[in-house]
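Allow me, if you will, to draw on your knowledge of protein folds for a short while. Thank you for your consideration; the sequence and its C-alpha cells are set out here:
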Amino acid sequence: MSALVFVKLFAIFAVVAIGWAVARSGRLGGGDPSRVLSGAAFYIFVPALLFRTSARIDFAHLDTRVVLAFFVPTVALLALVYGGLRFGRRRRAEEAAEPSVRAINATFGNSVQIGIPLAAALYGEGGLALHVTIVSLHALILLTILTALVELDLAHARRRADPDGAHLLGTLATTAKNTVVHPVVLPVLAGLAWNASGAALPTFADEILATLGQAVVPLCLVLIGVSLAHYGVRGALRGAIVMSLLKLVAQPLAVLAFARGVLGLTGVALAIVVMMAALPVGSNALIFAQRYETLQAETSTAIVVSTLAFVVSAPLWLALLHAFG
C-alpha cells in the first residue's frame, strides 16, 4: 500500500485514541457520553450527509456492472449473516437487533476514510471514479435494507411480548412508519425525490449540508474511542474477530467470485470492487449499533480489529488481484 494510505490509517487510530483518552479522563462527564455523540451523529450529521449524497447522484452515468458486481454479493452476504443469526435460535426481546447489527459489521466498509485514498493512490482518477460510484450508493442501500430488517424484528419482538396488544395490520403500519420516518431512510427518500425533480440544490442549502456532512467522519472516529472507553472489550473480542474475518475475507472473496466469474469484470474495475469489499468495518456500523443499543462494545472492537488487520489483509488481496492481471 502507498504511504498515503498508511498515513490515513495512522490518523484514524490517532483520532480514536484521542476519543478514548478524553473519555477515560472523565472530562466528558458521567453516564454514557457515547450516547450523546451517537445521537448527534444519527439525528443531525448523518441525515445531512445522506440527503446531500442521494440528491446529487448522477444516475445517468452509473456503471451498472460495477454496481452489481459489488452490491449483489454484498447483499447476499448480509442476508446470509442476518438469516443465520435471525433464525438460528430464539432471541429475547432485548436481543432482537443483534442479527442486523452483526450483519452491518460483516458488510459495511470504511469506504471514505480509507477507501478513497486507497483507490486514488493505486488506480488513479479512473479507479477513483469507479470507487465513488459505489460509495454514492453504499450507505443508501445497506443502511436502508438493515433499517427495514431491524425494525421488522423489533416489531415482531414487541408483538411476541404482548400478543394481545396490537393487531397484525397495526403492527405492520407501525413498522412501516418506523422504517420510513427514520433518520437514515427518510433523508435518503427525500434526497432521491429531490434528485428525481432535476432541480439543483440551492447554493446555501448545499453549503449547510456539506458542512454538517464533514463532521460525520471525525465525530464517528471519536465515538469509537469513547465507546471503547465506556464499554471496554471484555466479552466482545471473539465476536469482533469473527465479524472482522467475514468483512476482510468472506466479503471480498464473494465479490471477486461474482465479479470475475459471473460478470466477467477484469482490470481496474475488478480491482476496485474487490478492494471496496476488502475494506475494514466502517464507523457507521457503530452509529447503527448505538441507535439500537445493541452490541456497541463488539462493534467498536470490530472496527479497531478489522482496521488493524487491514494492514496485513490489503496487500494479500492486492497480490491476488495482480495474479488475476
